[in-house]
Amino acid sequence: MDWTKREVKQKFYHSKEWHILRSFILQRQPICEICIEKDRLTPATEVHHKIDIELDPGKRLDPNNLQPLCQSCHANITLNADNEKKFTPLNKVWNVEPLKIKKPK
Fold it and tell me: Which H or E run contains 17?
Protein backbone atom coordinates (compact mmCIF):
# COMPACT_ATOMS: atom_id res chain seq x y z
CA MET A 1 0.00 0.00 0.00
CA ASP A 2 1.35 3.45 -0.93
CA TRP A 3 0.99 5.59 2.22
CA THR A 4 2.08 8.73 0.35
CA LYS A 5 -1.24 8.72 -1.53
CA ARG A 6 -4.00 10.91 -0.16
CA GLU A 7 -6.70 8.29 -0.81
CA VAL A 8 -4.86 5.66 1.22
CA LYS A 9 -4.48 8.04 4.19
CA GLN A 10 -8.12 9.12 3.98
CA LYS A 11 -9.28 5.52 4.04
CA PHE A 12 -7.18 4.91 7.17
CA TYR A 13 -8.41 8.07 8.94
CA HIS A 14 -12.02 7.03 8.26
CA SER A 15 -11.47 3.47 9.53
CA LYS A 16 -13.20 2.06 12.60
CA GLU A 17 -9.81 1.10 14.13
CA TRP A 18 -8.54 4.69 13.90
CA HIS A 19 -11.72 6.18 15.39
CA ILE A 20 -11.65 3.77 18.34
CA LEU A 21 -7.95 4.36 19.05
CA ARG A 22 -8.27 8.13 18.60
CA SER A 23 -11.12 8.24 21.13
CA PHE A 24 -9.10 6.15 23.58
CA ILE A 25 -6.07 8.47 23.30
CA LEU A 26 -8.20 11.59 23.86
CA GLN A 27 -9.98 10.01 26.84
CA ARG A 28 -6.70 8.86 28.38
CA GLN A 29 -5.07 12.29 27.98
CA PRO A 30 -7.64 15.06 27.37
CA ILE A 31 -5.08 17.90 27.61
CA CYS A 32 -2.68 18.95 24.82
CA GLU A 33 0.80 17.57 25.57
CA ILE A 34 2.60 20.58 24.11
CA CYS A 35 0.46 23.04 26.05
CA ILE A 36 1.13 21.12 29.28
CA GLU A 37 4.88 21.64 28.69
CA LYS A 38 4.17 25.38 28.37
CA ASP A 39 2.08 25.45 31.58
CA ARG A 40 -1.19 25.86 29.68
CA LEU A 41 -4.29 23.71 30.02
CA THR A 42 -5.82 23.38 26.57
CA PRO A 43 -8.21 20.56 25.64
CA ALA A 44 -6.77 18.06 23.18
CA THR A 45 -8.93 17.72 20.09
CA GLU A 46 -6.44 16.13 17.68
CA VAL A 47 -4.30 12.99 17.77
CA HIS A 48 -0.91 13.39 16.11
CA HIS A 49 1.38 10.68 14.76
CA LYS A 50 4.87 11.43 16.14
CA ILE A 51 6.35 9.34 13.34
CA ASP A 52 4.33 10.05 10.20
CA ILE A 53 2.45 7.12 8.71
CA GLU A 54 4.23 7.78 5.40
CA LEU A 55 7.56 7.05 7.10
CA ASP A 56 6.46 4.03 9.15
CA PRO A 57 2.95 2.73 8.39
CA GLY A 58 3.47 -0.04 10.94
CA LYS A 59 3.19 2.55 13.73
CA ARG A 60 -0.12 4.01 12.53
CA LEU A 61 -2.08 2.27 15.32
CA ASP A 62 0.70 2.24 17.94
CA PRO A 63 -0.51 4.22 21.01
CA ASN A 64 3.13 5.06 21.83
CA ASN A 65 3.37 6.87 18.48
CA LEU A 66 0.31 9.03 19.16
CA GLN A 67 0.18 12.40 20.86
CA PRO A 68 -2.96 14.27 21.98
CA LEU A 69 -2.79 17.92 20.87
CA CYS A 70 -4.98 20.98 20.63
CA GLN A 71 -5.94 22.18 17.16
CA SER A 72 -3.42 25.05 17.26
CA CYS A 73 -0.40 22.93 18.25
CA HIS A 74 -1.34 20.25 15.72
CA ALA A 75 -1.65 22.85 12.95
CA ASN A 76 1.81 24.25 13.82
CA ILE A 77 3.43 20.82 13.75
CA THR A 78 1.71 19.91 10.48
CA LEU A 79 2.67 23.22 8.84
CA ASN A 80 6.30 22.83 9.88
CA ALA A 81 6.41 19.23 8.63
CA ASP A 82 4.86 20.23 5.29
CA ASN A 83 7.39 23.04 4.89
CA GLU A 84 10.28 20.68 5.63
CA LYS A 85 9.07 18.32 2.90
CA LYS A 86 9.04 21.21 0.37
CA PHE A 87 12.39 22.71 1.40
CA THR A 88 15.57 21.36 -0.17
CA PRO A 89 18.74 22.99 1.16
CA LEU A 90 21.09 24.25 -1.55
CA ASN A 91 23.98 22.20 -0.17
CA LYS A 92 21.97 19.03 -1.01
CA VAL A 93 21.11 20.31 -4.49
CA TRP A 94 24.74 21.17 -5.24
CA ASN A 95 26.18 18.28 -3.21
CA VAL A 96 28.54 20.46 -1.16
CA GLU A 97 29.41 20.45 2.53
CA PRO A 98 27.85 23.19 4.66
CA LEU A 99 30.19 26.06 5.55
CA LYS A 100 31.81 25.61 8.97
CA ILE A 101 32.57 28.84 10.78
CA LYS A 102 35.35 28.83 13.33
CA LYS A 103 34.72 30.80 16.48
CA PRO A 104 37.44 33.29 17.45
CA LYS A 105 39.58 32.28 20.42
Answer: helix 16-28
Residues facing 68 on adjacent strands: 47
Nearest-angstrom CA–CA distance, 33 and 13: 21
Instruction: State the 10-residue block means of pLDDT for the chain, 105 residues long.
Output: 92 97 97 95 96 94 97 90 56 53 67
Could you tell me which of 40, 91, 103, 28 has the C-alpha nearest to residue 70? 40
Q: Where are the domains of the chain?
A: 6-88
> Which residues, listed in sequence order, are joined to residue 43 by a DSSP beta bridge?
31
From CA 37, how far away is CA 41, in angstroms rounded?
9
**What pLDDT score was predicted for residue 99?**
55
The per-residue pLDDT for 91 is: 46
